[in-house]
């Protein structure tokens, strides 16, 4: 239920698109010391993957320096422990500690004399029952969209994250769902591209290259994520939202990492389904 | 409960006292009556009545056109005057109380032939009231506006100290206050959402309105409930002489109004209606879904009044507005305001005027969603029942005492999901809350010496959260600690009492200049939660509760007022203020208000401060009328959890603000007008760096509101053409033309940061703007 998404397409399309215009401007932006950025994932039945980099000033190019020589350890609540090996500059990988649903994992990254710690629980896996497609209700012009089907387990809070691929190419949008309004229900929900004029849930504006059409191979990965990870990506989507009318005061996403680093640590499941679009 | 009974109880003896026949000294008599428009019988609120033989003795007509003056017995010339009308004089010789009625004639079209004196400036010179501006709808009728829809709220933001929330928004900030801190009253009924179509239009149809008074500070004690301002909008009474109609056909909307006598000279009615037809254009779309879309609003204003006898007059006013947005049969959204006011004016004596109002006010929205054949939706409403009693007592020529009481019962239902059992979603709890807002007030306006005036007021306001309801307490992180459910039997769950002193003093330096000083405290118990740029119909009101404390503001102000030029055609106002605000509300970072039924968990509480200087040079008479305003102001907030607890600029902190409004009558046929605006850009949060997540560059944000958008500059032009030789015809027509943003400047609506198209490794700032060179033409007629 996204209340605002109901009125945007109409009002915004009428008033913003018809009369709006864009111009590149030069702003005098402040600078900031480089921040440590952690992207850490642990998939069920897989091993830890951690990427460490640093932020740059706004006017610089998108070359993000890797953090080399960090001590990255992963522990679980069942006594398991592994120090991840740096496979290439800034990329750290595990080979022994596996993701198991129901366990809570602690990530510890030590670099430059500072330690950053994050916890994540790998949720119990909810089966990805079916993948379907439907015509985007905003007209055939906008193509098709994926519909994911699963049965939400009743009585506990569940959060879901979906990634969508068109002919093997990853769509940048991160699709989120939770059971706030659907606890215990069979769910059949489209993956709404929420950026741009189509919604207010946030996310980057839709890219034409991701538009689904008949004959395309659609692949969707369903992840069960914990509430902290859901919050991280929800607040990340907020700042990626390009809709001016419904944008909120931007702030850095709510991270579960302590110590002042940016980024996230997500222990999650991964189930994938594929569909040739009719 | 006891406290409340007590509050009302203390006033009963006073009522009795004032209601008694007065022991009037033989030598002093009271002259009272009304000032009306001769042609329509409309009350002329704010008209001045002076005794020419007694310099400095005069008064203003109240909101119902009623005035009262006490003078020694003798022979006098009374003069009633009002901006835009020919002053009228009446000679009286009297030894006893007398009623004198004035019927003023609107100034002719040939302005040069009639010398009309500015009178608005007089009130500024002779009264202690500060921070007040009045907009007469006749004056602003020719100011150019977006899409040609005359809009009092948009015009209001052209005055110093009042800033628009942004382009295409009906929200405004007064002296650095929040957008929800303005009490907007339509015939005394609070209007909760003053915008149509996401804010592009205000809910006020100009055809139905008579005037608007805004108090930016030093609100009179009879007003309360919001921190920053009172916008008191009065509807026309309707012509009590002849049946008239008027209307307009514009690009976006059409309007029709009908007014006339119920019984000539005794009662009249007015009914106006307006509807937009933007959805007609959607039908032209090639997209089949867009074709099925619904997108329109309408509103209806109605008013009737009847003079029961010389001492009693009854008024009814109502408003109904609705916005409808929808897409085929799959979803729809409707929202709107409804208000109704029933008022009784009663003259206990020539010196004691009473008004009793019973007011109903409602704002609601519904969203319906049909999915897989089952229906679900979101429902929300805010509903008020309001009882108000005001007295105006004039014991002597130099004193006016106002006192009264008010009680408002609020029912607020925050948006909650409704769903059938077979629906794909579950319903969410209905957290309806009930509260009672009460107030008693008294104020004393006193001319202590010929040049020295004081207005002293005191308002005692109470707010009680009532059962039933469910309320939680939270820890510092916003996690629920305890949740309590109360029943109706629990009665008053929590009561806050606040004392709001108001004081102002003026000293007249010369015939044409005055200095003033004022202080006012205001309390606010209903708080609007909105964290987006556009005003959204789903914005949420929360009452003061166990967690949310009453907002408080203290404002001191000082002013200098000067009349200038031949016939005092110009008036200059310089006011400065310093304001502090307590218990201000903000949100935890990343709060999603659209999906939150437990909103209080996400709130942060802090303080605010604002200060500024406002200059206004105004010309209300002659062929050229208008004003030039300049404001320097700052407004800042402080929250422990934001910017390490340092003060940061509020979004509407725009230090420099210039507005120019000019209306020039070239000849009886053509009138041209223009407005010009300049203001510093909004304080916004800009990135200070970037980093990578999932292969996407992400902005790294620095301090809250640490950046600034480019300055806002806009000029609008308008022209009105009236066909000559229509003066004696029943049917008259005119054309209005306007161009919004005639300079075509691309003003910042928002700024987004995205990869450069040619070099995706670099990021660029892209400014989005809305309106440039928007022309409009409207055909207006009266009959």
Task: Describe the protein's architecture and organization.
The complex is a heterodimer of chains A (278) and B (783). With 278 residues, chain A is mainly beta. Helices cover 9% and strands 41% of the residues of chain A. Chain A has helices spanning 8-19, 227-240; strands spanning 21-25, 36-43, 47-54, 71-76, 81-83, 85-88, 91-98, 104-111, 114-121, 130-135, 144-151, 159-166, 169-170, 175-178, 186-190, 217-225, 262-268, 271-276. In chain A, the strands form 4 sheets. Chain A has a 5-stranded mixed β-sheet, with no helix packed on it. The longest helix of chain A has 14 residues, at 227-240. The radius of gyration of chain A is 20 Å and the shape is globular. Chain A starts with 7 loop residues before the first helix and ends with a strand. In chain B, 5% of the residues lie in helices and 58% in strands. Residues 1-25 and 109-119 of chain B have low confidence and may be disordered. The N and C termini of chain B lie far apart (55 Å). In chain B, the strands form 11 sheets. Chain B has a 22-stranded antiparallel β-barrel. In chain B, strands 1, 4, 6, 8 and 9 form a 5-stranded mixed β-sheet that branches. Chain B has a 5-stranded mixed β-sheet with strand order 10-17-18-13-14. At the A-B interface, helix 1, strand 1, strand 15, helix 2 and strand 17 of A face helix 6, helix 7, strand 23, strand 24 and strand 44 of B.
């Amino acid at each position: 239920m996204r209340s605002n998404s109901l009125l945007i397409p109409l009002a915004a399309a009428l008033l913003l698109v018809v009369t709006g215009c864009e111009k590149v401007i030069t702003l005098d932006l402040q600078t900031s010391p480089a921040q440590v950025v952690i992207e850490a994932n642990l998939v069920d039945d897989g091993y830890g993957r951690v990427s460490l980099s640093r932020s740059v000033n706004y006017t610089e190019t998108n070359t993000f320096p890797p953090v080399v020589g960090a001590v990255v350890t992963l522990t679980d609540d069942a006594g398991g422990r592994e120090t991840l090996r740096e496979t290439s500059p800034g990329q750290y990988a595990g080979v022994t500690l596996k993701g198991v649903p129901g366990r809570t994992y602690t990530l510890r990254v030590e670099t430059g004399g500072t330690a950053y710690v994050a916890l994540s629980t790998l949720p119990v896996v909810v089966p990805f029952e079916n993948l379907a497609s439907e015509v985007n209700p905003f007209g055939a012009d906008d193509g098709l969209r994926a519909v994911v089907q699963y049965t939400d387990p009743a009585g506990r809070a569940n959060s879901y994250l979906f990634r969508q691929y068109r002919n093997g190419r990853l769509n940048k949008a991160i699709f989120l769902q939770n059971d706030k309004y659907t606890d215990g229900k069979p769910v059949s929900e489209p993956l709404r591209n929420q950026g741009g004029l189509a919604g207010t849930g946030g996310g980057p504006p839709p890219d034409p290259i991701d538009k689904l059409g008949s004959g395309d191979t659609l692949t969707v990965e369903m992840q069960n994520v914990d509430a902290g990870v859901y919050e991280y990506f929800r607040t990340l989507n907020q700042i990626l939202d390009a809709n001016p009318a419904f944008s909120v005061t931007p702030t850095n996403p709510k991270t579960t990492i302590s110590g002042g680093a940016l980024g996230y640590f997500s222990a999650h499941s991964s189930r994938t389904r594929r569909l040739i679009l009719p | 409960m006891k406290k409340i009974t007590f509050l009302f109880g203390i006033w009963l003896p006073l009522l009795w006292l004032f209601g008694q026949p007065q022991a009037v000294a033989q030598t002093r008599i009271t002259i009272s009556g009304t000032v009306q428009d001769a042609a329509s019988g409309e009350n002329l609120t704010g008209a001045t009545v002076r005794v020419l033989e007694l310099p400095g003795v005069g008064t203003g007509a109240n909101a119902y056109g009623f005035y009262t003056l006490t003078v020694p017995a003798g022979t006098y010339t009374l003069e009633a005057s009002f901006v835009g009308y020919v002053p009228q004089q009446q000679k009286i010789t009297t030894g006893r109380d007398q009623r004198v009625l004035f019927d003023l004639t609107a100034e002719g079209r040939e302005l040069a032939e009639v010398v009309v004196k500015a009178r608005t400036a007089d009130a500024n010179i002779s009264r202690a009231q500060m921070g007040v501006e009045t907009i007469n709808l006749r004056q602003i009728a020719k100011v150019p506006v977006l899409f040609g829809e005359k809009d009092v709220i948009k015009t209001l933001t052209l005055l110093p100290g009042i800033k628009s929330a942004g382009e295409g928004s009906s929200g405004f900030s007064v002296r650095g206050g929040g957008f929800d801190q303005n009490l907007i009253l339509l015939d005394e009924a609070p209007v909760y959402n003053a915008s149509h179509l996401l804010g592009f239009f205000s809910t006020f149809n100009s055809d139905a309105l008579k005037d608007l008074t805004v108090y930016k500070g030093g609100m009179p004690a009879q007003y309360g409930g919001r921190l920053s301002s009172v916008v008191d909008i009065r509807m026309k009474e309707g012509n009590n002489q002849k049946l008239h109609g008027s209307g307009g056909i514009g690009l976006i909307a059409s309007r029709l109004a009908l007014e006339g006598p119920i019984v000539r000279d005794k009662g009249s009615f007015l009914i106006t209606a307006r509807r937009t037809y933007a959805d007609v254009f959607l039908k032209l779309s090639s997209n089949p879904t867009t074709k099925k879309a619904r997108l329109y609003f309408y509103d209806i204003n109605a008013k009737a009044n009847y003079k029961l006898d010389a001492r009693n007059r009854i008024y009814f006013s109502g408003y109904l507005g609705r916005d409808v947005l929808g897409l085929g049969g799959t979803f729809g959204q409707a929202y709107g305001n409804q208000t109704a006011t029933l008022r009784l004016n009663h003259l206990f004596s020539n010196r004691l005027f009473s008004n009793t109002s019973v007011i109903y006010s409602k704002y609601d929205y519904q969203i319906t969603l049909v999915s897989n054949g089952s229906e679900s939706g979101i429902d929300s409403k805010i509903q008020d029942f309001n009882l108000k009693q005001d007295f105006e007592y004039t014991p002597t020529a130099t004193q006016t005492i106002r006192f009264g009481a008010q009680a408002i019962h609020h029912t607020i239902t925050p948006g909650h999901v409704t769903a059938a059992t077979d629906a794909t979603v579950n319903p969410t709890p209905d957290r309806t809350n009930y509260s009672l807002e009460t107030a008693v007030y008294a104020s004393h306006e006193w001319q202590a010496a010929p040049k020295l005036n004081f207005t002293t007021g005191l308002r005692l306001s109470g707010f009680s959260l009532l059962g039933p309801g469910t309320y939680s307490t939270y820890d510092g992180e916003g996690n629920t600690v305890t949740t309590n459910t109360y029943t109706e039997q629990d009665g008053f769950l929590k009561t806050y009492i606040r004392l709001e002193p108001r004081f102002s003093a003026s000293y007249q330096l010369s015939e044409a200049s005055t200095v003033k000083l004022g202080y006012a405290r205001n309390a606010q118990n209903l708080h609007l939660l909105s964290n987006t740029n556009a005003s959204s119909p789903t914005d949420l009101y929360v009452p003061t509760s166990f967690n949310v404390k009453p907002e408080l503001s203290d404002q001191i102000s000082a002013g200098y007022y000067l009349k200038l030029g031949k016939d005092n055609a110009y008036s200059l106002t310089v006011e400065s203020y310093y304001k502090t605000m307590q218990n201000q509300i903000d949100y935890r970072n990343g709060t999603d208000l659209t999906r939150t039924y437990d909103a209080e968990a996400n709130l942060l509480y802090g303080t605010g401060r604002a200060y500024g200087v406002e200059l206004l040079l105004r010309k209300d008479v002659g062929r050229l009328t208008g004003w030039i305003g300049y404001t320097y102001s700052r407004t800042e907030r402080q929250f422990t959890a934001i910017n390490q607890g340092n003060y940061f600029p509020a979004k509407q902190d725009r230090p420099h603000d210039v507005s120019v409004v000019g209306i020039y009558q070239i000849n009886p046929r053509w009138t041209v007008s223009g407005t010009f605006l300049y203001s510093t850009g909004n304080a916004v949060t800009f990135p200070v760096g970037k980093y990578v997540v999932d292969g996407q560059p992400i902005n790294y944000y620095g301090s809250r509101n640490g950046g600034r958008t480019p300055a806002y500059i806009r000029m609008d032009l308008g022209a009105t053409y009236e066909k000559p030789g229509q003066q004696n015809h029943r049917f008259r027509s005119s054309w209005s033309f306007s161009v919004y943003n005639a300079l075509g400047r691309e003003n910042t609506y928002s700024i987004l940061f995205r990869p450069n198209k040619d070099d995706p490794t670099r990021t660029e700032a892209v400014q989005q703007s809305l309106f440039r060179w928007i022309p409009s033409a409207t055909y207006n007629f009266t009959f």
